[in-house]
Every structure is written in structure tokens, then in C-alpha cells.
């Protein structure tokens, strides 16, 4: 089952996801910095995506210099939310 479906079925889980989204993003930002060797300051302090965008499989951000970063962020967010 997809995380999005879990959140739809459980309003309390959706509230929790919204509450921890920023914390998970910060963890993902740090992990991405470690994995890429780029300084933490290379990445936006706040998530450039909303919780809804991060759950939307059809959402595709513009391809730019943050592509690798975004892939790592989304993967980390999904792992953190499990």
C-alpha cells in the first residue's frame, strides 16, 4: 500500500505526517549533504515542496541542479514516514 493511501485512510496519520515533515526534511537534507559531499548550505533550509507535492507520484519538479538532492529528499521522507 502506498503511503498516500495510508494517509487517506487514517486522518491521525496524515496529521502526524504533516507534523514530522519538516523534521524529516532536515534529516534528509543532512543525509544528502553527507552522501554528496556538498555543504549543508548548498541545500534549501526549508523544503521546496509541500507535503501534498511530496506524496504526488505525478508531480515532477523542474529538472535543475537540485535533482540529485530532491531524489534523496523524497527517498528519505518516505523512509522517515514509515
The number of distinct structural domains comes to 1
Poorly predicted tracts of residues: none
Number of strands: 0
Largest sheet: none
- Helix/sheet category: mainly alpha
Instruction: State Rg.
Output: 13 Å
Number of helices: 4
Shape by Cα distribution: globular
How big a fraction of the residues is strand?
A: under 5%
Average pLDDT, rounded to a whole number, is 79
Q: Could you state the oligomeric state of the chains shown? A: single chain
What does the model show?
- This protein is 65% helix and 0% strand.
- The protein contains four helices and no strands.
- It has one domain (3-81).
- By secondary structure, the protein is an all-alpha fold.
- The model has no long low-confidence stretch (mean pLDDT 79).
Essential attributes:
single chain, globular, mainly alpha, 4 helices
Describe the SSE topology.
Elements (H helix, E strand, L loop, with lengths): L2 H7 L1 H26 L14 H5 L11 H15 L1
Summary?
The protein is mainly α and 82 residues long.
Amino acid at each position: 500500500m502506498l503511503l498516500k493511501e495510508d494517509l487517506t485512510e487514517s486522518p491521525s496519520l496524515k496529521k502526524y505526517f504533516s507534523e514530522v515533515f519538516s523534521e524529516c526534511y532536515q534529516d534528509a537534507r543532512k543525509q544528502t549533504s553527507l552522501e554528496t559531499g556538498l555543504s549543508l548550505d548548498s541545500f534549501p533550509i526549508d523544503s521546496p515542496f509541500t507535503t501534498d507535492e511530496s506524496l504526488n507520484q505525478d508531480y515532477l519538479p523542474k529538472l535543475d541542479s537540485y535533482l540529485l538532492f530532491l531524489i534523496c529528499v523524497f527517498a528519505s521522507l518516505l523512509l522517515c514516514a514509515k
